Automatic annotation (TrEMBL):
It is found in: Nucleus. Transmembrane segments: none annotated. This is Zinc finger PHD-type domain-containing protein. Residues 1-50 are annotated as: Disordered. It comes from the Eukaryota. Residues 223-283 form the Zinc finger PHD-type domain. Keywords: Metal-binding, Nucleus, Zinc, Zinc-finger. The keyword Translocase does not apply. InterPro entries: OBE1-like_PHD, OBERON, Oberon-like_PHD, Znf_PHD, Znf_RING/FYVE/PHD. Pfam families: PHD_Oberon.
Amino acid sequence: MLPPRPSGLPPSLFLASSDARASTGNHDPGMNSDQNRESPAESANSRDTWPVIDAATQVKLENQKDEDGYYEQSVTHRPASANKVSLLDIAREQVDIISEKMYLLPNEYLEELKGRLRGMLEGNGGPQQRDELLFLQRLVQTRSDLTAKTLIKAHRVQLEILVAINSGIQFFLHHSMNLSQTALIEVFVYKRCRNIACQSQLPAEDCHCEICTNRKGFCSLCMCVICNKFDFEVNTCRWIGCDSCAHWTHTDCAIRDKQIGTGPSSVNGLGSAEMQFRCRACNRTSELFGWVKDVFQQCAPTWNGESLIRELTVVSKIFRLSDNTRGRQLFWKSEELIEKLKGGVAETTACRIILTFLQGRSCILHSIAPALCRNVCIKR
C-alpha cells in the first residue's frame, strides 16, 4: 500500500503517487503531467467515478418497459449458441451459473466481451450506448446477491466485467490490470479504493468521519470530498489537503462551492482578511498563501513552462478576490508571469521570480504606494 504522503511533506503537497503497481494504461500518474487532461472537477463525463444514474434516467429505465426491452436487445448481442454468454447475462444472471459457462468459453470470446464493454465505457457510441451502459449498471447496482461471498465463485473475467460495469472504470478490463480476485471483490463491495494508484483499504486510515462512513467507496487519501473523484495529479495546487484531517479537495471544487474565501488574518500587519480554505470534512480553515508557498518551493523547480502556467492560473483563481495586501500582490504577480511565460520567458526565470516573491523579497513599495507598486512589479 502506498503511504498517505511522503515523509516530511504536508498533505497539501501529495496525492496518490504511482509505483510499479500503478500502470494505468491511458492515465499518466506522474508528477504534474504535461499531458492536457480535463480536470475531474470540471468534467461531467469523468470515468473515474462511481456512475450515478440521474433521476430522469432512472425513471425512464424503470417505468418505460418497452424501452427496457429495447436496451435489453441492444446489449445482449446473444450468439447463436446457447452456451455463450452476453454482457446482459453477466449483469443479471446468477454468479455461479454464468461462471460455469464462462469456464467453457475460449479466451478469444472472453476478450471480445471485454472489448465490447470497453467500447461502451469509452462513451464514443453516443446517447444510445450511454443508455445501454446505464441499463447494465442499474441491473448490477440493484442486485442484492452480489456479495463478497457469492463473488468468490465468479470467473475472473466475469468479475472484471462486473467491477468495470459498477465502477465505470475501463482499466479494470485492461490486460495489465493485475489485482487479485480478493482485491477486485473488495473494490466491488466498497472495501478497497478504486484508484489503482492508491488501493487503500476503506475507510482509509480507519477514518470514521461522516464522509468516510457514509459515502460508499470514498477514500480520504486520494478523493475529493466535494466531487468524490480522483485523478493522478500530484504535487500541484489543483488539490488542497487539509492539515487538520488530511482529507482532499479539488481547488476548482472548493472555489465553485465557496469553500475558499476571505477570513480573519492570523498574521499581523497584512490587512483585516486573507484567503482561506474551509475543509468540508472537518470544517476547519487554513490560510492559503503559506500553502501556495510550500507547494511552489517544493515542486516548482520540477515543472516545465506549461505546468508552471497551469499552476499560476490556479493561484490566480484563488487570489483574484483577495483584499489582503500579499494576496493581491500574489494575484498580480501570477497574472504577470503567465503573460511573460506565454511571451517566451524561460520557465527557470519565471520560477525564480515567483519563488523570490513568495519568500518575501518582493517590492516594498506596496506598503507605501500600492498603485505605483503594481505598475513597477508588472514592468519587471
